[in-house]
């Protein structure tokens, strides 16, 4: 919820379709519709694992290094790997240049994303090592933290790091009284509420949940259900992206 400046744009139009009144969003989406989502795994050659994820105009690149020797050494833990996360918005990712230095928002988001990933990575398999997860927002149009988690979990899988489940995220919100899935920046700016959610769908665990603004209890329950369904779809796309990479690798092997 950014508290948009200037005159409020029309974000919801009510249209009659098949005798029903339906809410249509400013970009033509229905309330429970995701933006076009694109994912690609293994997009960087230096990193052990990487992924590029797009939710509409939001574009995030994730790179994973490790498990590798932890530096400085005193950071290492005797019984498990440490996960270090950096969520960062590139200075060119927003219309107005963002300061390249990490802001308090980025430091906090790095921490909550780390906590979400720690819940799925089998860190106990890699004692005394570090796993570095870098998430760079290349273009921001709302929902960057959730797209970053989705990308990070794909990059961890691409690095071959054992996990209990993938993590997928999406932000839901309340715009002009309507609960909507996958809010973009303009909706976020004028929303009555916005709620980023990340889950490990197969484990049935909620790994990140933040609510800005106000929802009635019933709306909160509906918003969680909307998020859960969106996350199921994103989860399928993640598995497909990993499968595509695997098929490519197998084909390359066959050609040799
Ligand atoms: P999220 O990206 O996870 O939704 P926020 O709710 O904090 O996080 O931000 C919503 C949107 O506002 C971002 O996706 C981005 O488009 C924009 N935004 C956030 N921080 C900045 C910033 N420092 N400069 C310009 N735009 C920003």
TrEMBL record:
One example GO MF annotation: RNA binding
Keywords, ordered alphabetically: Cytoplasm, Exonuclease, Exosome, Hydrolase, Nuclease
Family annotation (InterPro entries): ExoRNase_PH_dom1 (IPR001247), ExoRNase_PH_dom2 (IPR015847), ExoRNase_PH_dom2_sf (IPR036345), PNPase/RNase_PH_dom_sf (IPR027408), Ribosomal_Su5_D2-typ_SF (IPR020568), RNase_PH (IPR050080), Rrp41 (IPR011807)
Principal subcellular localisation of the protein: cytoplasm
Entry EC number(s): 3.1.13.-
GO cellular component: cytoplasmic exosome (RNase complex)
Compartment(s) where it occurs, according to its Swiss-Prot or TrEMBL record: Cytoplasm
UniProt cross-references to Pfam families, sorted A to Z: RNase_PH, RNase_PH_C
Any one Gene Ontology BP term: gene expression
Sequence ranges assigned to domain Exoribonuclease phosphorolytic in this UniProt record: 33-161, 165-230
Keyword Methyltransferase recorded: no
Main function: Catalytic component of the exosome, which is a complex involved in RNA degradation. Has 3'->5' exoribonuclease activity. Can also synthesize heteropolymeric RNA-tails.
Quaternary structure and interacting proteins, as annotated: Component of the archaeal exosome complex. Forms a hexameric ring-like arrangement composed of 3 Rrp41-Rrp42 heterodimers. The hexameric ring associates with a trimer of Rrp4 and/or Csl4 subunits.
Family: Belongs to the RNase PH family. Rrp41 subfamily.
Family annotation (NCBIfam families): ECX1
Protein name per Swiss-Prot or TrEMBL: Exosome complex component Rrp41
Taxonomic lineage of the native organism: Archaea, Thermoproteota, Thermoprotei, Desulfurococcales, Pyrodictiaceae
Gene responsible for this protein: rrp41
């Amino acid at each position: 919820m950014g508290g948009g400046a200037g005159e409020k744009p029309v974000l919801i139009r009510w249209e009659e379709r098949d005798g029903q009144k339906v809410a249509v969003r400013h970009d033509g989406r229905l309330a429970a519709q995701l933006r076009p989502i694109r994912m690609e795994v293994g997009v960087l050659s230096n990193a052990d694992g990487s992924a590029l994820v797009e939710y509409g105009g939001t574009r995030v690149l994730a790179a994973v290094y490790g498990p590798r020797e932890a530096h400085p050494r005193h950071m290492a833990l005797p019984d498990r790997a440490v996960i270090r996360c950096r969520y960062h918005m590139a200075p060119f990712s927003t219309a107005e240049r963002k300061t390249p230095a990490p802001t308090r928002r980025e430091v906090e988001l790095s921490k909550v994303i780390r906590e979400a990933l720690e819940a799925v990575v089998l860190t106990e398999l890699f004692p005394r090592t570090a796993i570095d997860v870098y998430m760079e927002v290349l273009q921001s149009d709302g929902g960057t933290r959730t797209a970053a988690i989705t990308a990070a979990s794909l990059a961890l899988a691409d690095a071959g790091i054992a996990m209990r489940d993938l993590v997928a995220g999406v932000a839901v919100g309340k715009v002009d009284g309507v609960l909507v899935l996958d809010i973009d920046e303009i909706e976020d700016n004028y929303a009555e509420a916005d709620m980023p959610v990340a889950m490990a769908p197969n484990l049935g665990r909620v790994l990140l949940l933040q609510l800005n603004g106000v929802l009635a209890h019933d709306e909160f329950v509906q918003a969680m259900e909307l998020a859960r369904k969106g996350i199921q779809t994103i989860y399928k796309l993640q598995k497909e992206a990993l499968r595509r990479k695997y098929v490519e690798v197998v084909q390359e092997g066959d050609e040799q």
